[in-house]
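Key result, reporting period 2: structure in, sequence out.
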């Protein structure tokens, strides 16, 4: 192989010129090739023919190689000639591009020369237009200032209102020319005219409505009505001063009539305050309604200022006579005040309420609890746990009242009187529940209706509902937190005094039974355990605790809706729901212990029997009969009384099974020694466990 014949070159040649000829292979072997041509001695007879073919092939290859070599001798010369021709073409192209560029520059310069005069004319036209417009504005300004000063002296406010606005608008075009003395002088004259107008209008209103005198008799003059239109264009302070003085003069009589030392100033006659302002607003509409522009909202401003004054005066008098405030009097005053605030919301939009006046109540997040009931004037006797959120219709939320609290905020510092009253009322209510329970006794069993919820439970939550709605109308701040604390206190008292306090006490009377007496008891005989009335009482307490648990959760959500957003985190009734959960757990445990204790003597009898002496296998052992008897007696009663709370009946069955089966197995191991016949008899004990399993299956 030649040095230049590298393996990579061979692979490339094979890829470019594929061939099946053995002579073209890189690993050509002459001996193998000859053996292929002459595999046997007989094939040597054709050697001359093969040699001639090879020679012919060699001559063809030589001719091809000679032709290729001769053809490559002129390639270099042709390539150099083509390169020279390309270079000449490029030079010619560059020359043509340069000529085009020179012609474009000449054309651009020619266009600039042509349009130079046109641009100058355009600039001249624009400057001339601006100058003419400015001169027109200057003429209007100068004439307007002269007319404004003359009309001001003649108090022609109707013409001044329109003229002044035009003069101010024109003067804005000269802001960039204030460096010119004449323009600055006109601007100063306009400001002086505005100041003179303001002082003159204030003087006219002071003359028409003197601070120390009575209201001006008769209707307002057209001069004052036009003066209000001028005040709209002047500094806003002039408008505010007019409004302030007019409202102050309009409410001066109110401050005299309802002074702190007057009888009508106390809370029991608070209706007279609101009746007075209603008359005044009607009187204002008749006499002065057309004098002030409608956008001033003077009627609403008078009502709002009346509310501020009333809140201040009521706060002072309540601080002075705090000891005289009673619950009924306080609620009466709050009710009348909130009614008045609602009337204002219907009549006015609240557009004049400033940022520091009254904070509008924040919109609470959408309610997701079923504790949804009509809050206004509700007279229902029971709070019903409603359907799930997906099934029940959403109650549309009433629009916010922008006037809420504008007067009634003054009562908030004194709401402790209301909270203390509710504390006392709830304490008496709980005591009455306890007394009624003792007087009436436990609820009578009624398996047809299921476990009955104690009536006192519904009464308690109805009272809670009324208190919550009433307090939320009074305040959504700290008083709601104080009321929540009272709710928590009496929820716990109800759980311990009414529910846990009336659960039957467990007894251990089964320990007095003997094995002999147990084995001799007949079907239907009684074992010391809870009576039917006691079982029904436990189930009723369990159902009541479940109702309280669910309703307390709903009460918590409703309280969070009513309270301010900043106080939501302080509403937490988890401790109270845990208390009712404990009552439920204790009730279930009592039911399990009762049935478990009733079955204990039978299991004890099973372990004490002499199983090695049993000679015959009977149908069913006495202790099995006893266990089944107790289960058949207790479970149907509990099931029927817990029909409305199936999940807790399931818990009862599971807990009993978890308690009884290990105990049964433990006693089963105590049955020693035992014979084969006794072992067969023991197998019948599985019937009791099967019965328990069937109960669980029925529940599922």
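The corresponding designed sequence is given below.
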């Amino acid at each position: 192989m030649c040095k230049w014949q590298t393996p990579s070159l061979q692979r490339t040649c094979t890829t470019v010129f594929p061939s099946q000829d053995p002579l073209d292979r890189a690993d050509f072997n002459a001996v193998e090739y000859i053996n292929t041509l002459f595999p046997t001695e007989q094939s040597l007879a054709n050697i001359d023919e093969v040699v001639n073919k090879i020679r012919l092939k060699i001559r063809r290859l030589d001719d091809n190689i000679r032709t290729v070599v001769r053809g490559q001798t002129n390639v270099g010369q042709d390539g150099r000639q083509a390169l020279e021709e390309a270079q000449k073409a490029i030079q010619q192209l560059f020359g043509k591009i340069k000529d085009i560029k020179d012609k474009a520059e000449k054309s651009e310069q020619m266009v600039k020369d042509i349009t130079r005069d046109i641009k100058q004319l355009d600039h001249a036209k624009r400057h001339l237009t601006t100058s003419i417009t400015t001169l027109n504005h200057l003429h209007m300004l100068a004439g307007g200032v002269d007319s404004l000063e003359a009309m001001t002296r003649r108090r022609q406010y109707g013409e001044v209102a329109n003229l002044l606005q035009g003069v101010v608008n024109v003067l804005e075009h000269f802001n960039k020319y204030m460096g010119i003395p004449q323009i600055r002088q006109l601007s100063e004259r306009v400001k002086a005219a505005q100041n003179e107008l303001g002082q003159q209008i204030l003087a006219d209103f002071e003359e028409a409505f003197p601070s120390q005198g009575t209201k001006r008799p008769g209707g307002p003059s057209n001069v004052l009505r036009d003066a209000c239109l001028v005040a709209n264009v002047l500094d806003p302070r002039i408008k505010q001063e007019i409004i302030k003085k007019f409202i102050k003069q309009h409410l001066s009589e109110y401050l005299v009539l309802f002074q702190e030392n007057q009888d009508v100033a106390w809370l029991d006659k608070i209706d007279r305050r609101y009746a007075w302002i209603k008359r005044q607003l009607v009187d204002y509409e008749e006499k002065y309604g057309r004098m002030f522009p409608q956008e001033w909202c003077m009627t609403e401003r008078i009502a709002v200022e009346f509310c501020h004054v009333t809140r201040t005066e009521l706060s002072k008098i309540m601080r002075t006579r705090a000891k005289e405030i009673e619950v009924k009097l306080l609620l009466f005053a709050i009710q009348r005040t909130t009614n008045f605030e609602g009337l204002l919301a219907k009549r006015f939009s609240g557009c004049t309420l400033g940022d520091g006046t009254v904070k509008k109540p924040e919109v609470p997040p959408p309610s997701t609890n079923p504790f949804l009931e009509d809050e206004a004037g509700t007279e229902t006797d029971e709070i019903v746990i409603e359907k799930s959120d997906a099934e029940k219709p959403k109650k549309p939320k009433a629009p916010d009242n922008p006037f809420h609290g504008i007067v009634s905020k003054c009562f908030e510092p004194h709401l402790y009187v209301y909270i203390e009253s509710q504390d006392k009322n709830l304490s008496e209510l709980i005591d009455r529940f306890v007394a009624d329970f003792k007087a009436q006794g436990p609820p009578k069993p009624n398996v047809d209706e299921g476990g009955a919820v104690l009536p006192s439970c519904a009464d308690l939550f109805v009272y809670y509902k009324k208190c919550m709605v009433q307090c939320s109308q009074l305040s959504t701040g700290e008083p709601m937190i104080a009321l929540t604390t009272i709710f928590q206190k009496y929820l716990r008292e109800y759980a311990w005094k009414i529910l846990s306090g009336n659960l039957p006490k467990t007894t251990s009377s089964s320990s007095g039974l003997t094995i002999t007496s147990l084995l001799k008891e007949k079907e239907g005989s009684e074992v010391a355990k809870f009576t039917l009335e006691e079982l029904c009482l436990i189930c009723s307490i369990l159902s009541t605790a479940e109702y309280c648990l669910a309703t307390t959760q709903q009460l918590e959500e409703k309280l969070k809706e009513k309270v301010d957003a900043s106080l939501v985190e302080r509403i937490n009734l988890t401790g109270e729901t845990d208390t009712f959960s404990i009552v439920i757990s204790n009730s279930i445990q009592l039911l399990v212990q009762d049935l478990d204790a009733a079955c204990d003597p039978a299991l004890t009898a099973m372990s004490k029997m002499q199983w090695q002496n049993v000679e015959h296998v009977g149908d069913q052992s006495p202790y099995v009969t006893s266990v089944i008897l107790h289960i058949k007696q207790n479970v149907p009663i509990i099931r029927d009384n817990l029909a409305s709370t199936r999940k807790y009946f399931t818990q009862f069955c599971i807990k009993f099974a978890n308690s009884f089966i290990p105990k049964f197995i433990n006693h089963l191991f105590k049955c020693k020694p035992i014979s084969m016949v006794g072992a067969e008899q023991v197998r019948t004990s599985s019937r009791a466990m099967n019965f328990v399993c069937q109960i669980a299956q029925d529940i599922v």
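Residues 75-154 form the longest helix (80 residues). The CA atoms of residues 135 and 141 lie 10 Å apart. This case is discussed further under Risks and Mitigation.
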